[in-house]
Write a sequence for this structure.
């Protein structure tokens, strides 16, 4: 079974080809030009996707050593994401599916991330806890199998990656914030400043906007970012990073105590964070659980995870009509709630 995957939900144009879950190609073109604007500019993102999509598909076909007619399934991210950006990949996939008369499958981007651990050699074992931490989303889910995903908690305000991006901007470190804060934190003291972590009614939920405000107040109290030297900024970065990682890992720990799972997986752009990886591995070891954190290529946005999710949907008998509409936000009913499941 040969599957083409297309991902254009944000600022990565990515095309992948999978043959029976094995990756023949996974091309990712990152639109780095957004960095100078301090964030993704939606209109520029759509235009770049339009320019990149066709050459990338051609290249993926070429390096996979296949022909268009060999494709069985054509899939693309339908949402959540930037609507104009989503439309490019989705429309391209629909057009290709129509012209080649092949099955079309629309994929939920978050589900792509949730199953991205299966692109690794060592795969998660069902049931597993999955922490999805990206620029747009932060959620903790219990994955029973390919068809049952139970939402345990989500962010009530900013996503974890968004918090990294906003605090990096505030500290004058640039964009994207995650890698910049991680870099700056290397020479800082994580215990120097005690930034608060919010307690919430649902203990599996997350909140990062209070933390961001605490950093802002701290910086203002010092007389503004101009008054801070490199060491001071390093201490703020390290203390902030420590607070985010504590918030994420504490929810995982609580879930491990409550649910009997076989493994843990951490996915999404923030899964690239080395402190998060280190603390999550310690936690998994202390509970004697397997942990799968995709490598850099697969924890950020990529089309291999979209093609993989399409494969699993296809095997469950799911395919979509060509009038499938893109959706910018995650629908409240996309995942099961704990109440629905029990
Ligand atoms: O999953 P992703 O590539 O795109 C979205 O779907 O959002 O995630 C991007 C996010 C950005 O907010 C970026 O700052 C964050 O992932 N990120 C990191 C690191 N690398 C990327 N956050 C913390 N530490 C990192 N090393
Ligand atoms: Zn993503």
């Amino acid at each position: 079974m040969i599957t083409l995957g297309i991902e254009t939900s944000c600022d990565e144009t990515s095309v992948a080809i999978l043959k029976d879950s094995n990756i023949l190609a996974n091309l990712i073109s990152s639109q780095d030009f957004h960095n100078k604007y301090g964030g993704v500019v939606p209109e520029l993102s759509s235009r770049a996707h339009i320019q990149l999509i066709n050459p990338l598909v051609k290249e993926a076909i070429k390096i996979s050593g296949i022909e268009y007619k060999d494709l069985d399934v054509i899939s693309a991210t339908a949402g959540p994401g930037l609507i104009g950006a989503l439309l490019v990949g989705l429309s391209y996939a629909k057009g290709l599916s129509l012209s080649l008369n092949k099955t079309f499958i629309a994929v939920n981007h978050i589900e792509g991330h949730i199953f991205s651990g299966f692109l690794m050699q060592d795969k998660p074992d069902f049931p597993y806890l999955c922490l999805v931490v990206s620029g747009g989303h932060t959620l903790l889910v219990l994955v029973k199998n390919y068809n049952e995903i139970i939402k345990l908690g989500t962010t009530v305000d900013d996503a974890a990656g968004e918090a990294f991006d906003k605090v990096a901007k505030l500290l004058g470190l640039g964009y994207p914030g995650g890698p910049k804060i991680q870099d700056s934190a290397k020479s800082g003291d994580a215990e120097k400043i005690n930034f608060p972590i919010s307690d919430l009614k649902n203990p599996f939920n997350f909140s990062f906007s209070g933390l961001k405000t605490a950093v802002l107040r701290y910086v203002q109290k010092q007389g503004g970012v101009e008054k801070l030297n490199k060491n001071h900024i390093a201490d703020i970065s390290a203390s902030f990073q420590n607070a985010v990682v504590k918030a994420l890992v504490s929810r995982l720990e609580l879930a491990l105590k409550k649910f009997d799972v076989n493994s843990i997986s951490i996915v999404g752009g923030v899964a690239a964070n080395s402190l998060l990886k280190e603390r999550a591995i310690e936690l998994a070891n202390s509970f004697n659980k397997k942990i799968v954190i995709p490598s850099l290529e697969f924890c950020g946005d990529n089309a291999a995870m979209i093609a993989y999710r399409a494969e699993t949907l296809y095997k469950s008998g799911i395919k979509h009509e060509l009038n499938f509409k893109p959706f910018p936000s995650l629908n409240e009913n996309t995942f099961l709630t704990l109440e629905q499941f029990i």
